[in-house]
Amino acid sequence: MAATPLVGSNMLSLNLCCKRDSFGSAKSFVMHGVKPLNLGSSGKRRIICGCTAPIRDFRPADADEFSATTINAKDSSKAESVSMVREQDETDVLIECRDVYKSFGEKHILRGVSFKIRHGEAVGIIGPSGTGKSTILKIMAGLLAPDKGEVLIRGRTRRGLISDEEIAGVRIGLVFQSAALFDSLTVRENVGFLLYENSNMPGDQISELVTDTLAAVGLKGVEDRLPAELSGGMKKRVALARSIIFDTTKDVVEPEVLLYDEPTAGLDPIASTVVEDLIRSVHMKGESDVSKPGKIASYVVVTHQHSTIRRAVDRLLFLYEGKVVWEGMTHEFSSSANSIVRQFASGSLDGPIKY
Ligand SMILES: Nc1ncnc2c1ncn2[C@@H]1O[C@H](COP(=O)(O)OP(=O)(O)OP(=O)(O)O)[C@@H](O)[C@H]1O
Fold first, then answer.
1. What total of structural domains would you count in the chain?
2. Does any ligand 1 atom lie closer than 6 A to the CB of residue 74?
3. What global pTM score does this model have?
4. Signal sequence: where (predicted)?
């Protein structure tokens, strides 16, 4: 089967491996608006990515000042010291996007995007609508191929899309904005999907794990419902449960990077807080509500919500006009002197961002 770029709002991407004939054969993917995935000879696929950014000048033409955390190549001493730090510390880079370009027809969306996601990081990608945030997530997840540039996973260039099997060591999961649940499967079957298909766990053990995982996202007694019987916020939480469930019988679990596309869009403020805290709780650095450390090594969140920026991420990348124009820690965002960031943070109509 040829590598197929998967594009659309109703795709389902599951982290880990998927059997060709899983849950009603590859046809069921099509039936649910999902194109068949490109599967290797083993019948399994793996989603993986990685990236290393060269020292570069992020300064946009109209920015008067710049955050201390951005790198100006003209400041050679700073660039050198940053370069040394980076060279010494590349082993923890899980995903790197290096000078990534992507166009759709005449629309040149990404025009040289570079950044790294390191082990342990909680990163937010923000920026105006239509600037390519979801596109870069799909490229990181291996669902879209860049036109130019590279995606590296643990320092190794990924060739092609999600079918690559030569790169191992990181699992990448994408949680879609639309939740992308299988309409004809119950909540239990949706959440336990990969375990039913790819693990050796007995059904009753999976069922128990599904119930625990649903409880961790604040859902009880919904296992036998169909997605159509849930509210939008509940569907998002089911999708979250599906992305964080894992095989508890395995001794070694590879580090996992979760990519969340607007996980709190359309949720009321309290439901948003629940989801934001959940995202934190499944991070390895965090603690879950049952006082167990989370399992996600790193995560990336695309969001427009201030509360999500504040509660769920530590570092931010600001995407504008096809490039990362600012990056810094979350607490630096609101005090940044960068005119683009200031306008975005204040929601002002005056400034370099034009609608
Ligand atoms: N498969 C596609 N075919 C054609 N155009 C596309 C495709 N995917 C995305 N685009 C276009 O690329 C641009 C960037 O889309 P993307 O969804 O990545 O933006 P975004 O920054 O996530 O936006 P938002 O914040 O509004 O969700 C948009 O103009 C969109 O219409």
1. 1
2. no
3. 0.72
4. none
> Is 350 exposed, middle or buried, given 0-12, 13-18 or 19+ CB atoms closer than 10 A?
exposed
Residue 293 inside a domain? The answer is: yes
Q: What is the tens place of the pLDDT at every residue in 163-213?
A: 555 556 677 888 877 767 888 999 999 999 888 887 888 889 999 999 988
> Does the CB atom of residue 221 touch ligand 1 within 6 A?
no
Query: Alpha-carbon distance 292 to 281, whole Å?
Result: 9
Task: Indicate whether residue 7 lines ligand 1 (CB < 6 A).
Answer: yes
Ligand 1 atom having least distance to the Cα of 131: 21
> Measured between alpha carbons, how far apart are the two ends of the chain, in Å?
42
Structural domain boundaries, residue 99? 91-346
Summarised one tens digit per residue, pLDDT across range 19-42 is 222 222 222 222 222 222 333 333
Q: Which two tokens stand for residue 150?
A: 């590279």
Amino acid (one-letter) located at 31: M
Q: Confirm whether the ipTM is greater than 0.95.
A: yes
Q: Is residue 285 part of a domain?
A: yes
CATH number of the domain bearing residue 336:
3.40.50.300
Helix axes 269-281, 232-244, angle to 10 degrees: 0
Give the integer Cα–Cα distance in Å for 70 and 343: 18
- Evaluate the CA torsion angle 355, 135, 271, 254 in order and state its sign: negative
- How far is the centre of ligand 1, averaged over its atoms, from the C-alpha of 109 (Å)? 8
- The answer to whether position 6 is within a domain reads no
